[in-house]
């Protein structure tokens, strides 16, 4: 059922962002991030959210019908794919750590430009600017001590192009896109079989790039000049980035959409405000709780102690529940004695049986043997709110030849 819920959450989020195409990219990115947050929260919320829709859930969860054996096989395949995906993320993180160790600081001219950009955005955290030949495009990594990687091809860029690139990457730092993308990558690998996850993940990455472009344009940069600088960067990079965990200037396929957006003066470039963020958070809570509770049994009022005791007596004692024990004694077989002995006893708090009483007349040897067997019998005690209680128990011992 969790698979159905996660797919529904992401599909609804994807549809909402598609309907918000004229709104700011920063808001669409926040909505998509909230959708992935719902996916993260669902396993926990299912334990606490009020249940509803229990009659509909089995029908939905059973589509398509699979046998228990097939379900076990599918579960193994799911877990294996998720393990491989998470392992690849760990490998990618190791490669980024290696990249950071081998990269060198940028030269003094570019460092001066970088410090100007950091001051423009008011970043208080220390940001390291590094040059590397192992990355084919600019990218950002890290949360508390972020690093901006500039490819060695950037030496050919003009000051205006370099400033535009650095502004875009520092915008990633300000927005915390590295942490968001890392979490989304992990969720996508866990649900690797769900195409909705991959679509939403790709859309979130693209909206993050668009939001950073908007942050650069909000500094007063001309849209036409910025589009020209994006084209310059696209011409100088080669290949594709192999560090998917690090937010970057996007691959070649994303440059076309970014250029078109930069040249469109009608696009809303409003940065994400605290008020808008709060509204998204409220919407996240309003959507997550009902979705988590769907298909779960409705909560019942806590029963009283007397009601619990009555329920235990009903399930364990009297005529409604019998405990049957079969005995095969050699001496009885030889003497051709057989029969059924009905007894009433008490199940003690330690799981032992006491106060054994024969209910119906039987052969004395059978009665004696039955009492001996019952007194040696053990089972789990009955519990009332976790506390063992003593209950009456009706038992049957069958002696067969």
Core attributes:
14 helices; Fusion Protein Consisting Of Minor Coat Protein, Glycine Rich Linker, Tola, And A His Tag, Chain: A, Domain 2; alpha+beta; 10 strands; four-stranded mixed sheet; 401 residues
In short:
The protein has 401 residues and is of the alpha+beta class. It has helices at residues 2-19, 25-45, 57-61, 68-102, 108-121, 159-175, 177-190, 195-217, 223-236, 252-263, 274-293, 305-316, 330-334, 364-376; strands at residues 104-105, 128-132, 139-141, 147-151, 322-327, 339-347, 353-358, 382-384, 387-389, 391-399. It has two domains: 2-293, no CATH class; 305-399, Fusion Protein Consisting Of Minor Coat Protein, Glycine Rich Linker, Tola, And A His Tag, Chain: A, Domain 2.
Topology:
Layout: H1 2-19, H2 25-45, H3 57-61, H4 68-102, E1 104-105, H5 108-121, E2 128-132, E3 139-141, E4 147-151, H6 159-175, H7 177-190, H8 195-217, H9 223-236, H10 252-263, H11 274-293, H12 305-316, E5 322-327, H13 330-334, E6 339-347, E7 353-358, H14 364-376, E8 382-384, E9 387-389, E10 391-399
Parallel strand pairs: 2-4, 5-10
Antiparallel strand pairs: 1-2, 3-4, 6-7, 6-10, 8-9
Task: Walk me through this protein's architecture.
This protein has a four-stranded mixed β-sheet, with helices on both faces. A four-stranded mixed β-sheet has the order 5-10-6-7, with helices on both faces. A two-stranded antiparallel ribbon has the order 8-9. The protein is built from 14 helices and ten strands. Helix 2 packs parallel to helix 11 (274-293) and helix 8 (195-217) crosses helix 10 (252-263). The protein has helices spanning 2-19, 25-45, 57-61, 68-102, 108-121, 159-175, 177-190, 195-217, 223-236, 252-263, 274-293, 305-316, 330-334, 364-376, and strands at 104-105, 128-132, 139-141, 147-151, 322-327, 339-347, 353-358, 382-384, 387-389, 391-399. The two termini are 51 Å apart. The protein has two domains: 2-293, no CATH class; 305-399, 2-Layer Sandwich (Fusion Protein Consisting Of Minor Coat Protein, Glycine Rich Linker, Tola, And A His Tag, Chain: A, Domain 2), CATH 3.30.1150. With 401 residues, it is α+β, with helices and mostly antiparallel strands.
